Amino acid sequence: MPYFETNDGVQLAYEDYGTGAPIVFLASWILNTDMWEYQVPYFLQHGYRCVMLDRRGHGRSDRPATGYDVDTRADDVAALIEHLSLDGITLVAQSAGGGEAARYLARHGDDRVARLVLLSSTLPYLRLTDDNPEGLPEAGNEADIAQLRTDRPKWFADRAQGYFATHLGNETSAALIDNLVRQCLSASPFATVEMRRELFNTDHRADVARITVPTLIIHGAADQSVPIDASSRRTAKLLPNSTYKEYPTAGHGLHITHAEQLNADLLEFIKS
């Protein structure tokens, strides 16, 4: 696996396959490049180049004590793009990766980005405040952080079925669920907590309003990790010219349970 060095000396791992038009995949909180195993082969077969990043504290990258704020993470994305001299990018961002994508565009512009895809995104602003009445109570997030610090494996295991919305008929094997939990636990415990608090409390409304590239927004209506009313339905209103799709039976893990539908929707958007 290749590495590159960020501005603050952190070694980040990435994967790079294919030679066509580039798709840069930004993973969810506590997941890494492995999460895209149902997307990468599909897009390679259709002639695209697939680039994936292990953000700091995740996967095979360094685990520094700093840099988990969204500005630094967005700059890490920029450093990868510059390192590989990528242009005409389709930026595909899942969950917390959506905040990195939006902040990257706000800080670095869209000269290198042709289009944006937001999957199950944490945008635009999750925390309940006086001027954000559709947000979620901060006490709930702090309770989750307390549980993560007490028994991190149990916290992920308890939420695995909801992640896939298996109660709506989405078939996932016990082995697949176990594999996902192992991926979640591979992230640094420190990074897990730091990013959890940061992504919940970061206001991206101004970032979203400034997006001008063609954008596709997809979210599962049964998402328990990032409720759709607090996230993508609001993001779509801030981007009235975006393409917006809801998957009625999908949870947060739609990149797995609805991979066939998702891949087809992504390909159609990229080709359009």
From TrEMBL:
One of its GO terms (molecular function) is hydrolase activity. Residues 22-259 form the AB hydrolase-1 domain. Keywords: Hydrolase. This is Alpha/beta hydrolase.
